[in-house]
Specification:
With 299 residues, the protein is of the alpha/beta class. It is 45% helix and 13% strand. The strands form two sheets. The protein has a seven-stranded mixed sheet, with helices on both faces. Strands 5-6-8 form a three-stranded antiparallel sheet, covered by helices on one side. It is globular, with a radius of gyration of 20 Å. The two termini are 32 Å apart. It binds 1,5-di-O-phosphono-alpha-D-ribofuranose (RI2).
């Protein structure tokens, strides 16, 4: 897909999910580099940077998109356009492969955290969190999952159908029913859009309420997050731009008169409500996130 088409599909959420957005953007940038008819290296880089910016500006919250684009552009090394182009291609392919390998590694660790007979509450639709639950099922563990519908986009429908198709005992619940069912839960398992150096996690709106409720019931919250979703150590909650989307996603235009509507689509869950962050390099306690990040970004 070309840059504009990919950008449009990310903006409209036809392409959604932090990981899928990152991979789609990386491949669009690669495709652009391959087709770009420019023999001057400086002009080539400048045009690549414009394409990068167009993709970066599609959705402001998940640092995974920014990191993916940076990783691809870091491949643009060399003195000729041929060298620059080859570097971008290789970096994009490497990112996509690493991100898929990361999902598989995290899902194995996540499945090991799920005990036979566990009841799990999950929120939104996280590819890696869902894969972890499916892996547990495929290991022969019996598990029961409550998936929230996740208004206003109802990503929970995707999660529910995916788990049902994998033979998992799945029940869809409304977002407001989380505390009602938390009494039955052994675990909360969710994904992430951004992990901050203090161990707090940016994820779909409602995640922080679920974590607060889990904390009250002493239910561990596990976050599945590939390390490319980790923000640089200097980024804090005040730097995170929480995306607010169209109010038409919440209520049909004109249905309510004189009523203000807001539609923030992410929130930040404090580290104290999170038991572990499961990554492809292992399980991280939120309090150790800063150390992991220092190492990652110093390398
Ligand atoms: P994976 C999604 O956002 C959800 O917040 C989900 O937890 C997160 O991205 C990570 O998804 P949206 O795109 O990368 O539905 O785990 O707004 O698939």
């Amino acid at each position: 897909m070309n840059i504009d088409e990919t950008a449009q599909k990310i903006i409209t959420m036809e392409i959604r999910g932090a990981g899928k957005i990152a991979r789609s953007a990386a491949l669009a940038l690669k495709d652009y580099a391959i087709k770009l008819q420019e023999e001057d290296p400086q002009k080539f880089i400048s045009m690549m940077k414009s394409a990068q910016a167009k993709l970066f500006n599609t959705r402001p919250t998940a640092v995974s998109l920014e990191n993916a684009l940076e990783l691809v552009m870091a491949g643009a090394k060399g003195n000729t356009v041929t060298e620059l182009r080859a570097g971008v291609e290789a970096a994009a392919d490497q990112f996509v492969k690493n991100s898929q390998d990361a999902i598989n590694k995290i899902a194995v660790i996540c499945a090991d955290k799920i005990n036979d007979g566990n009841t799990i509450i999950t929120h939104c639709n996280s590819t890696v969190a869902v894969q972890g639950m499916i892996n547990a099922k495929n290991q022969g563990k019996s598990l029961r999952v409550y998936a929230t519908e996740t208004r206003p986009w109802f990503q929970g429908h995707i999660t529910s159908q995916t788990l049902a198709d994998a033979g998992v005992d799945i029940t869809l619940i409304v977002d407001s029913a989380v505390r009602y069912f938390m009494t039955e839960a052994n675990l909360v398992i969710v994904g992430a859009d951004t992990v901050l150096s203090n161990g707090s996690v940016v994820n779909k709106i409602g995640t922080s309420q679920i974590a607060l409720c889990a904390h009250e019931h002493h239910v561990p919250v596990l976050v599945c997050a590939e390390t490319y979703k980790f923000a640089r150590p200097n980024i804090t909650a005040k730097d995170v731009r929480i995306e607010e989307r169209a109010i038409s996603e919440v209520v049909k235009p004109g249905k309510l008169k004189g009523v203000k509507i807001r539609n923030p689509v992410f929130d930040i869950t404090p580290a104290k409500y999170i038991e572990s962050i499961i990554t492809e390099i292992g399980v991280i306690s939120p309090s150790n996130t800063h150390e992991v990040l220092q190492k990652m970004f110093d390398e």
